[in-house]
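FIELD: query
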Amino acid sequence: MITLTLLDFPANIPLQEWSFDRQTPIRVGRATDNDVVIDNSLVSRYHLEILPGNLNQSWQVVNQGVNGTFLNEVLISRSPLPEEGFLQLAKDGPVLQFKTPAILKLNKTTEPGGKKCNHVGNATTNLFCIRCGELLSPIQKSIGSYQVLKTLGKGGMGTTYLALDSMLASGQSPLLVLKEINADLVEVDKAQELFTREARILQSLEHPNIPSYYASFIDQGKKYLALELVHGENLEDYVHRLGAMDVAKAVTWIQQVCGILNYLHSRTPPLIHRDIKPANLILRHRDNQIVLLDFGAVKEVGTPLQTKIGSEGGYSAPEQNQGQPCPQSDIYALGSTLIFLLTGKSPLDFYTKLEHGYGFDLQGVPGIPTFLQTLINQLTQEQPIDRPQTPQEVAQALDFYLQNPS
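FIELD: result
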């Protein structure tokens, strides 16, 4: 038997696991007919094969990927596998941890020979030991049944934590996100309303590109949400790190966001997210899909407006900034988000007075084809009625561009 675990590298957080007990090759790659499918642009369709071993011969790995395979950071073409280690599919590509029976039979905190594991070889960023799986990160504090490992972020509304929950059902990751409302907002009616609404709406949603809701609770007078942890990088950080995106990639990402918005806008009553922006769009590591975060500003169409919310940086539509959001406000944000992805610059850098009112002047901007300049202009019209009315219309226009690039 051999077990392969896809890791969120370098934190080494397990994302997905496969176990094989057979005498035929195990194929790994991007194509859907592989035994282990990893949807990542650096991974070849058929990237590597793992050949079964026996009592007298170890398992073998054979590279077939154009970007190479690294066994414990060494580029290989064919090599025997040690009892445990890491396979990286391409430089900076996804990482698979492998373990063979001798390792799998060990107790959680022991190493080969039954000795207590000393956790040698772990990077300082590792949350769990690569040898025994024991938690390495110190517990900062406990909140109810959750143990906080680190703070992920702080904002005007609250703080988010990475937490561990040993009470989750078998098969679920024990890692999750805790959202805590700021102490100075606990008695503020608007903050309470937003928090309660976010919990209620998230509990009602079921979409693969929206984090799962686990629970909401009060601990020592503070309100918390427990949500699925999405392993990935938000598009704001991604673009700041790598620069402006390839047009086809950016368009594909916006199409995925259109799919999420179509789900939200088709609810009864329709839901307006009100905070579409690169920082709230996560590129999930395990499948390169976009996940939409932060439902703290979400509003149901037809309900009284008790809070006026707008994103900074040019992502909010004019009517939303005036306290009158509508579903087409999210459409507006798609256009300004596409500007950021294609240029690596804030949409406000292109916002100016035009012949009729204000808008984004993209004429002659490198990296934005003429077709997309026109589409972005339509998405960001000052009046909601002048924009595409549904996410499906936007997705269809983007699909037309991908089939007819110019």
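FIELD: remark
Residues 102-108 have pLDDT under 50 and may be disordered.
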